[in-house]
């Protein structure tokens, strides 16, 4: 499967990636191996998905067996909300590298623009079930400077952002020595994020869409969500071009100059 790519900092990012969010333990490793055997060269991970160890076993297998070379696979992971202090950023990266059994990441993103209380609990809450935020409230600059050091040390090739808005990205751009290479946000025909895409293009930031199919897996939990795969307009276009609705939705993103996962 030959893949088109887009520029992402110092690298080229394949436009179609495999996301591993909600991939269950005992299943995610096989899914990643199947994807790599069948031409995928972009795998999106995150500490908070709590499946990086199993993915790491798959990486070890496919790389050692020569199924694919490490340098031919673009691997992303993300810094979680409990690791935003400068001294905690390298600890988080070290754990991800250990779990994924890698020497470096192609892209490391700040997962969300919020700061939770540091500690082993990834979702710290109080007695009322409300999130507990970091009382030190580390700035974007503190966290970003720590990420830049990871680039300097060769542990990460590119750094970027996830779920940030234009104002937050602009703030990072003001002080960044290493510019954000990528922004990952939700994007699909019902939520296209056109203004944010234009902003990213203007600033040479690769735009990566998650939920390009509109997250049909959550329809049972939230019946109010619209199923893009069953949308009449999407289905009509699919029939016209002899494609599946999913293929149409993916092509929509690629034609907009985005990567997807």
In short:
This protein is of the alpha/beta class and 261 residues long.
Fold and architecture overview:
- The chain has 261 residues and is of the alpha/beta class.
- It is built from 8 helices and 10 strands.
- Helix 1 links the parallel strand 3 (18-19) and strand 4.
- The radius of gyration is 18 Å and the shape is globular.
- The relative contact order is 0.13.
- The model has no long low-confidence stretch (mean pLDDT 93).
**How many β strands by DSSP?**
10
Strand order of the largest sheet: 3-4-5-6-7-8-9-10
Residue share in helices? 25-40%
Question: Outline, from the CA principal axes?
Answer: globular
**Structural classification:** alpha/beta
Order of helices and strands: EEEHEHEHEHEHEHEHHE
Distance between the termini: 16 Å
* Low-pLDDT ranges: none
Described by strand count, sense and barrel closure, the largest sheet is: 8 strands, parallel
Average of per-residue pLDDT values: 93
Features:
alpha/beta; 261 residues; 15% strand
What is the secondary structure topology, with strand pairs?
Blueprint: E1 5-8, E2 11-14, E3 18-19, H1 28-37, E4 42-44, H2 52-64, E5 74-79, H3 89-100, E6 107-110, H4 140-152, E7 159-162, H5 166-175, E8 182-186, H6 194-202, E9 206-210, H7 232-241, H8 245-255, E10 259-260
Parallel strand pairs: 3-4, 4-5, 5-6, 6-7, 7-8, 8-9, 9-10
Antiparallel strand pairs: 1-2
Helix pairs in contact: 1-2, 2-3, 7-8
């Amino acid at each position: 499967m030959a893949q088109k790519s887009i520029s992402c900092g110092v690298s080229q990012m394949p436009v179609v990636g495999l996301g591993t969010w909600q991939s269950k333990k005992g299943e995610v490793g096989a899914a990643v191996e199947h994807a790599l055997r069948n031409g995928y060269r972009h795998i999106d991970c995150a500490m908070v998905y709590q499946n990086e160890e199993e993915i790491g076993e798959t990486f070890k297998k496919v790389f050692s067996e020569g199924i694919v070379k490490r340098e031919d696979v673009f691997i992303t992971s993300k810094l979680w909300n409990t690791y935003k202090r400068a001294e905690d950023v390298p600890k988080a990266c070290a754990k991800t590298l250990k779990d994924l059994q890698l020497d470096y990441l192609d892209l490391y993103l700040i997962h969300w623009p919020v700061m939770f209380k540091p500690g082993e609990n990834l979702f710290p809450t109080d007695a009322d079930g409300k999130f507990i935020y970091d009382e030190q409230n580390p700035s974007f600059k503190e966290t970003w400077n720590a990420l830049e050091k990871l680039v300097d040390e060769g542990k990460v090739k590119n750094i970027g952002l996830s779920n940030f808005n234009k104002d937050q990205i602009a703030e990072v751009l003001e002080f960044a020595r290493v510019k954000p290479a990528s922004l990952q946000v939700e994007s699909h025909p019902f939520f296209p994020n056109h203004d944010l895409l234009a902003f990213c293009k203007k600033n040479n930031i690769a735009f990566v869409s998650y939920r390009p199919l509109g997250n049909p897996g959550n329809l049972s939990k939230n019946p109010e969500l619209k199923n893009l795969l069953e949308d009449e307009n999407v289905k009509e276009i699919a029939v016209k071009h002899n494609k599946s609705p999913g293929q149409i939705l993916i092509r929509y993103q690629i034609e907009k100059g985005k990567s997807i996962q």
